[in-house]
């Protein structure tokens, strides 16, 4: 078979696999938005069936044959060409998938689909005992998954690769150590600062329907295309890409917490802009996919925090907020608002954590999920360890398990090795924004004028349209001139909080 | 292989096929409710992929081998046992699927998906010429489909079997002839009656949000289980069963037409009650599926018309409607309301036709689609024939093609042989309700008290939980003691309209 024909068939198969994956994405989205509660068990069966079918396709020996032909051909001589990048990534994925037994894949899909509902119930009732057997089952399954993949290396790295190809736990540990060293004293200084700010203005009354309209308007203003996406309301904000022109965001609203809905929306919009900026021509192949979850998260954090909590952004958007909520915000000054949306709070809640403490929340999870996976921590002891870690890194103790180890649904969904991508996202995002600020003259002025297009186009060009042409860390180095490190993030946080808190 | 093992494998495969079909159902539901408009093309690709996978499974030779083993075994000696009924139906479906060339199936899927858009455009612009080539193409494809299936029998019967297994066109022709003979004079008498009723009260202002709440409350009151289903808003009412515990209804609302939303809801609720009443234990096999579209429609028509337009029903529900719409309905008397919801109108529009004239609309389509399929009518002459038929049976002439032969999208979707199931639904529904009225003492009193459970339980027991254990006509005969006939329907219509119109 000629390599051109092999490549054609490889791409056709890969696209079909992606189409099937999109069907599963819709089933997942629907489960969190519109599925009647009685339909959960049947949905788990549907998810397991599709997961099994996807696995069968992803491990079809024909893929291996096609990859063999291509790897021995001159088509991949130039590693920067699309064909070479696609072959590299498809080989990696094929190797990974063929190591996972189909029965394990189906079992994980079924168990996590059911465990999600149990986690919701357990969190609502502060009843960790209810969730514990499910977590134990999932940890066992994930350990089997890691053992199938690890090649004698660290179990955790084998799972990490799913979300952040190329990342290693010892490098991550060094990154977290550097961040911890820098951030813990900075957090302490802010805590002891006399320039305490209040966030009371965010807790006033914001009618939910007006919030929904305001969020949709802002999402459109920064560049989210509603002809190719949606914004819905759920309990837990998330995004799903069901196809190149069908990207769905959700956020939650609280009539007495403006930030919950608005920054939830900005976060998901960041994910959405990345998805909508991918090259549709390469849909369904690595070239048309995000390079890593960390890079995906970098866009969520960049739009939520770096932009969405900047003075320049609110310079333009705050007058619109005042118009939308005249009774609520008519008497508030821009500076006070900017202080409020950046208020540092030592609290137990990750989702609403400020930029400064956020990575410490992730550090807790990074350490605990490694301990669970390696057998150094039993699920029965998770609650106590969680409390101890929060006390150690943040100086706070969650009131109960609902505010503690039940707060996130990631582990219920089988996402082990996922949490570090949030911190990688902060690191990548800060580094990219620093570069954009150097290369684009006057980013702050653009933002203050409500002109988001120059920055968005820069990101599209440098990051989004690159897809998975390069591994995420390589892409960061290509775009910013330096490998990923904590420096840009720490610099940005120091600059912002020294100004706000005089530290 | 032992027959028990063969049956086990057969059912496992059948259930998997059903699970996959459910995924396609969700994709279809989502397309009509929440899909961003940019996502349509990609959704078509997803649907095509799933359809191809379903076809491959449905025609897998392994199914034929398993059926061979079972048909030669004592397991099916007693034809009333589940195993015998499942084997009978699965053999019928396998025979049908394997006779259809895959290329024809794919061509039909592609052409009807494109033709649907052309039909929408043609209807909007009253431009039959635009739709004609597509209709010609579809008629040709459906003729090829029928030729693959008909075994020398009537072409039309081969298509009918898809929707109403066991039905024959000559029997249907006799049924329609009997209905025509009885109904045409009755319609004429009503038209000439001095007791003309007005439906103005239905055209007053009914705020849409209140309608939505009222419809959901009524759906729950008659027995639709919202823990296992939903009710959403769309342009065209429909129902989808995504699983045994996930049945989704939609209706459309018009602030100046109470009937559109309410009776649309009652119609879909009838479908929903049938689906929710199927035996979940047999999900995914014929025993857990509806026996025919005619029987499904019978439940929609029974709950929409026989119950939903009865005086007894409104005796209980009208005071609630008055409470929900106090300004709109405060001055309306129950009898006037009951007259209004049963108003007979000689019009060209099938969807909003009253109970009395509805079957004449179907008769027009039944005759014309046979003529198209058999080559007795060219698509070029369809418009003129449509007009002539409406004049002959209903005494009205549609203003143009949009109100005439372009009003329904069924033929654009390739649905030939589907229309008669509406009339079969009316026939089955009336016959079942007459039997229920004999066996359940005081059905009208139950309805007038808002007690729907006795009737629903009777229907569940006799019809819904039977699934496809018997062909629909056999089931009707078992439950009512007589084969399906026009008698009960004509009796019910005579009784209702002689009272309302004094004829």
Q: What is the percent of helical residues of chain A?
A: 55-70%
Largest sheet of chain A: 3 strands, mixed
The most extensive interface between chains reads: A-B, 34 and 35 residues
Question: What global shape of chain A is seen?
Answer: globular
Assembly state (oligomeric): homodimer
Give a structural overview.
With 503 residues, the first copy, chain A, is mainly alpha-helical. Chain A is built from 21 helices and 3 strands. The first copy, chain A, has helices at 3-33, 40-58, 61-71, 82-99, 102-124, 128-149, 155-163, 169-192, 208-222, 258-277, 293-307, 311-324, 326-329, 334-341, 355-374, 382-394, 420-439, 443-448, 453-462, 472-480, 487-501; strands spanning 229-233, 239-243, 246-251. In chain A, strands 1-3-2 form a 3-stranded mixed sheet. The first copy, chain A, is globular. The mean pLDDT of chain A is 95. Chains A and B meet through helix 1, helix 2 and strand 1 of A and helix 1, helix 2 and strand 1 of B.
In brief:
Chain A has 503 residues and is mainly α. The first copy, chain A, has helices spanning 3-33, 40-58, 61-71, 82-99, 102-124, 128-149, 155-163, 169-192, 208-222, 258-277, 293-307, 311-324, 326-329, 334-341, 355-374, 382-394, 420-439, 443-448, 453-462, 472-480, 487-501, and strands at residues 229-233, 239-243, 246-251.
């Amino acid at each position: 078979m000629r390599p051109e024909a092999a490549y054609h068939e490889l791409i056709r198969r890969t696209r079909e696999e992606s189409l099937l994956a999109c069907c599963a994405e819709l089933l997942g989205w629907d489960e969190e938005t519109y599925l009647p509660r009685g339909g959960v068990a049947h949905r788990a069966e549907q998810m397991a069936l599709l997961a099994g079918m996807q696995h069968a396709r992803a491990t079809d020996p024909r893929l291996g044959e096609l990859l063999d032909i291509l790897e021995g051909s001159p088509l991949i001589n130039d590693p920067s060409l699309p064909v070479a990048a696609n072959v590299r990534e498809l080989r990696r994925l094929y190797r990974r998938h063929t190591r996972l037994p189909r029965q394990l894949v189906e079992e994980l899909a079924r168990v996590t689909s059911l465990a999600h509902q149990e986690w919701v119930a357990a969190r609502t009732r502060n009843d960790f005992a209810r969730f514990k057997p499910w977590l134990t089952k999932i940890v066992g399954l994930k350990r089997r998954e890691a053992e199938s993949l690890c090649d004698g290396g660290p179990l955790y790295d084998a799972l990490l690769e799913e979300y952040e190809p190329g990342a290693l736990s010892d490098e991550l540990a060094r990154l977290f150590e550097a961040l911890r060293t820098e951030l813990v004293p900075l957090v302490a200084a802010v805590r002891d600062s006399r320039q305490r700010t209040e966030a009371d203005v965010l807790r006033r009354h914001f009618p939910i329907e007006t919030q929904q309209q305001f969020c949709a308007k802002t999402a459109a203003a920064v560049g989210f295309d509603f002809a190719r996406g949606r914004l819905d309301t759920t309990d837990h904000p998330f995004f799903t890409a069901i196809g190149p022109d069908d990207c769905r965001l959700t956020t939650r609203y609280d009539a007495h917490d403006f930030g919950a809905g608005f920054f939830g929306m900005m976060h998901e919009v960041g994910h959405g802009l990345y998805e909508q900026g991918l090259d549709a021509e390469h849909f369904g192949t690595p070239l048309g996919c995000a390079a890593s979850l960390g890079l995906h998260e970098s866009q969520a954090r960049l739009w939520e925090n770096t932009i969405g909590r900047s003075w320049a952004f609110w310079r333009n958007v705050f007058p619109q907020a005042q118009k939308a909520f005249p009774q609520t915000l008519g008497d508030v000054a821009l500076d006070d608002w900017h202080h409020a949306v950046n208020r540092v709070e030592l609290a137990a809640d990750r989702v609403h954590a400020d930029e400064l403490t956020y990575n410490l929340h992730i550090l807790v999870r990074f350490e605990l999920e490694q301990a669970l996976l390696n057998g150094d921590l039993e699920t029965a002891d998770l609650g106590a360890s969680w409390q101890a870690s929060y006390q150690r890194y943040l100086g706070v103790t969650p009131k109960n398990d609902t505010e503690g180890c039940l707060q996130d649904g990631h582990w219920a969904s089988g996402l082990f090795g996922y949490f570090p991508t949030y911190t990688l996202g902060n690191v990548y995002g800060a580094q990219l924004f620093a570069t954009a600020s150097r290369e684009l003259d006057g980013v702050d002025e653009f933002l203050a004028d409500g002109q988001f297009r120059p920055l968005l186009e820069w990101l599209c060009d440098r990051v989004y349209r690159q897809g998975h042409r390069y591994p995420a860390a390589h892409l960061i180095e290509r775009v910013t001139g330096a490998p990923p490190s904590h420096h840009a993030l720490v610099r940005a946080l120091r600059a912002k909080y020294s100004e706000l808190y005089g530290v």
